[in-house]
């Protein structure tokens, strides 16, 4: 066969193979778009673990009607423009891949308004089928239906609905923890699974996710130097879990996975943890975007951090200090 450029739908489906692994990946991308749009309220409405539908509604800045088609074009983004921008990324998205990828493996209906113009667009197989004026207050709603209907291999690879749902819940919990200033509402098949109040208090988000009693057993941590600011909450050594999946790390608001920094958390407990038990921790790292490379993997959960060894020490030391007996946090739940 002669070499030829791939049709755009095929190229998008290939990208989707990396970005849209499962329903939870769609949730992550849509929620992160809402966060980038500076929403203060985000609703996530899921049906049948995302296989029937995923809808994310935000009150963010919306997209002007005449740009909506661009949002579904590959490598089209409002978040970066020059290659220098790649070294100072503050937004969660920047690759301009999520919407075209999602649209190539599902049916998408987007309603969006920037306050001046409102539009509804419907895509199937990644192509715009219909676009018309609509009525919506400022914000965006993205409805994704029949995910993977045209990629049977991917559909077959999915796990039980309960497993897919737990991946969705996991990602929403982390986004809510990463953004305590945003009000989240998460509904599955008519049942509300999480609401957060958006008041910016991490311990209240922790209570909403892990329960009031657990949240009370967590202590605040803090550590600063010229390069990093570390803050967050970690559980008392008596409050543990059987897996490391209750460790959450955020860099400038982005949830990341990092084996080494997870080890720093555990090290902070010294010999206080029983074998096979892990704490609950939510750690926020603020740094100059120049110190981090997020352009490592399409899902952007894997990042490279300069001076990671220094950060490791800071996290470990912050936890060690916080677990000194005198450092229990005051009861902040009294007024709720
Ligand atoms: P990226 O987030 O990497 O820019 P996406 O494909 O996720 O790429 O989105 C493309 C563009 O569509 C974004 O850059 C943004 O301008 C716009 N967009 C997507 N979702 C929203 C939203 N919920 N609110 C406002 N604008 C959005
Ligand atoms: Mg995006």
UniProtKB/TrEMBL annotation:
Residues covered by the DNA mismatch repair protein S5 domain: 206-324
Function: This protein is involved in the repair of mismatches in DNA. It is required for dam-dependent methyl-directed DNA mismatch repair. May act as a 'molecular matchmaker', a protein that promotes the formation of a stable complex between two or more DNA-binding proteins in an ATP-dependent manner without itself being part of a final effector complex.
Family as reported in the entry's similarity comment: Belongs to the DNA mismatch repair MutL/HexB family.
The protein, known as: DNA mismatch repair protein MutL
Organism: Aerococcus agrisoli
Taxonomic path: Bacteria, Bacillati, Bacillota, Bacilli, Lactobacillales
Gene: mutL
Portion of the parent chain present: 1 to 336 of 677
